[in-house]
């Protein structure tokens, strides 16, 4: 078990990785296995190839890179607590669950064969730019949450009460 505030550099292959209730400078790399981050904050870099990743209750400065695996993000509270959440996902689905009154701006950009299905109420008024890529901005402020999707579906859902 790692201390609550940690410096971690972890690499795994062919197995699961879960971090829970941690803060610090954290670097994760995984191949062929699921990654779950629950209540992880700080400066966090996560790279996953051929496996799913889930992020719940995160804060701080998160950068997530996923190739060939589904990504699930559950935002909590009424804004992003930290400098940014940046997620880049190639192939397979990306889902984002957000509270109805989420105050941080969210920028969504898709390329390739990507579809966007936004069922959250905030999406109704979101401006969209559609050309070779699709850009959607949710909220009126500088986007703290940025999602980049190439090939595969992107779904945004309201959180359940």
Describe this structure in words.
By secondary structure, this protein is an all-beta fold. The chain has one domain (5-128, 135-158). 0% of the residues lie in helices and 66% in strands. It has no helices and twelve strands. The chain has strands spanning 5-13, 17-31, 35-49, 53-56, 59-67, 71-74, 84-90, 94-98, 105-118, 128-130, 134-138, 143-158. The protein has a seven-stranded parallel barrel. The protein is globular, with a radius of gyration of 15 Å. The model has no long low-confidence stretch (mean pLDDT 89).
Quick structural overview:
By secondary structure, this protein is mainly beta. The chain has strands at residues 5-13, 17-31, 35-49, 53-56, 59-67, 71-74, 84-90, 94-98, 105-118, 128-130, 134-138, 143-158.
Could you list some keywords that capture this structure?
66% strand; 0% helix; 161 residues; seven-stranded parallel barrel; mainly beta
């Amino acid at each position: 078990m790692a201390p609550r505030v940690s410096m971690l550099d972890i690499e795994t292959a062919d197995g699961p990785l879960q971090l829970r209730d941690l803060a610090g400078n954290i670097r994760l790399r995984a191949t062929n296995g699921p990654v779950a981050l629950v209540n992880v904050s700080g400066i966090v870099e996560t790279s996953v190839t051929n496996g799913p990743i889930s992020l719940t209750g995160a804060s701080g400065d998160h950068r997530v890179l996923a190739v060939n695996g589904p990504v699930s993000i559950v935002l909590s509270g009424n804004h992003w607590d930290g400098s940014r959440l940046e997620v880049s996902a190639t192939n397979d689905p990306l889902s984002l669950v957000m509270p109805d009154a989420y105050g941080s701006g969210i920028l969504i950009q898709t390329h390739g064969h990507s579809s966007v299905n936004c069922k959250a109420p905030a999406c109704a008024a979101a401006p969209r730019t559609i050309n070779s890529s699709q850009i959607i901005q949710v909220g009126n402020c500088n986007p703290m949450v940025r999602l980049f999707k190439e090939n595969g579906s992107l779904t945004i859902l309201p959180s359940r009460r």
